[in-house]
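Re-run requested by the PI after the first attempt was lost when the workstation crashed. Everything re-entered from the original request form. Ligand of interest: zinc ion.
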Amino acid sequence: MTRTTLSELSEDDQKLVQQARDIMANAYCQYSKFKVGAALLCKNGEVIVGANHENASYGATICAERSAFANALTKGHREFTAIAVSTELEDPCSPCGICRQFLIEFGKYKVILSSSTTNDIILTDTYELLPYAFTPKSLDDHENEQKHHK
Ligand SMILES: [Zn+2]
């Protein structure tokens, strides 16, 4: 994890952060008032955005990160290079546990945590966010071990 500022990022990463900040305007968060935006950079260079969407049945709420992923996966994307996440918190906020699990499903890539009220940035990656994770490899390992035990 590295703490830095927006101006220290590459131009592409700055754009990704800006897209995460911009899409916060579409958050449906009338219960928490906690706007979150995410911008997911796909391997082909396309950026897919998402915002958090709450529900009167609170458990039905979907986070911005998973909203972006649902959009991207629906469009057929399966490989990702980076995700930027933004909230109004002055200190960049980190994805929730469910989102960390969702993110690591697609391997190791850059995670840029940002704020819409400051230029503070935290740079990390999916592996650092969820150490010792359960991943698709866990299922593959299980299948292979079962074969060898027969
Ligand atoms: Zn989440």
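Saved to the shared folder this time. Helices lie at 11-23, 64-74, 97-104, 126-129, 136-149.
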